[in-house]
Amino acid sequence: MPDELLCSGSVLRAVESVVREVADEEIMARFRLLAGGDVARKSGPLDLVTVADRRAEERLTESLTGLLPGSAVVGEEAVDADRSVLDALHGEGPVWIVDPLDGTRAFVHGEEGFCMLVALVQGGEVVASWTYLPARDRMAVARRGAGARLDGRELRAGTSAPGAVLGVATSYYVYSDEAQKEALLRLRSPGFETRPITSAGCAYLDVASGVADAVAFAWENPWDHAAGLLLVREAGGAGTTLAGEPFRVTGGNALPLAAARDEASLRRVLVALRGDR
């Protein structure tokens, strides 16, 4: 199925409508109203899941596959229950990559820094993405080769001033092995100001809109990166793995991976991560 059909205006608008509806009915309806039994802990020490995550993913799965018959969904919660769900990413058919609630800890604590992420993949390539911050009603949409928009307006990442201190959001070290942790710690050096990432999607949007200069991650879950990397690239930014290769949604990437608002900033971040300076 060609990109033109996958990403026709009608499909783009339909997905945006679905995302808004599900966010309103399953996420915002529970925001700051969670009961004790609505929250559970998954594998990691910071890894939470709520009834909102699960219900939103179920609704998105039903609606998105209805929009594109024959498509599959790779969702965070489905993969948590069954890793074989990831196998769909190795096929040629259209696949929706879904994070129903990115930034669950913020959501649980009543903070607004969470989002819903949807990316459409064809043959391993991300062709469109949606990043929605429901508590702030901000919607960013990107289409491969056609640019990015935030709330209907063209989105441009801009450039960092030559030699300026770069603001870089980094993933928590608890999710890193020792080599990855050492790489991320190299960003705690002159020329960089670091802060932790609480939501991958929100962090990518910050880069795409020029609010932040770069991000660096030591994990490769496709639902955390597929939407954001396309958004940054279509806003004029750039992203790559530690090996200087494009991120693969199928996995096996050299980590950390980084994205920045311009090529020069990305090169500075990669040099630091590799310890080349």
From TrEMBL:
Q: Which SUPFAM superfamilies match?
A: Carbohydrate phosphatase
Q: Which Gene3D superfamilies match?
A: 3.40.190.80, Fructose-1,6-Bisphosphatase, subunit A, domain 1 (3.30.540.10)
Keywords linked to the UniProt accession: Hydrolase, Magnesium, Metal-binding
E.C. designation(s): 3.1.3.25
What InterPro entries does the entry give?
Inositol_monoP_metal-BS, Inositol_monophosphatase-like, Inositol_monophosphatase_CS
**Which EC class does it fall in?**
hydrolase
**Catalytic activity as recorded in UniProt:** a myo-inositol phosphate + H2O = myo-inositol + phosphate
The entry's protein name is: inositol-phosphate phosphatase
Report the source organism: Streptomyces hazeniae
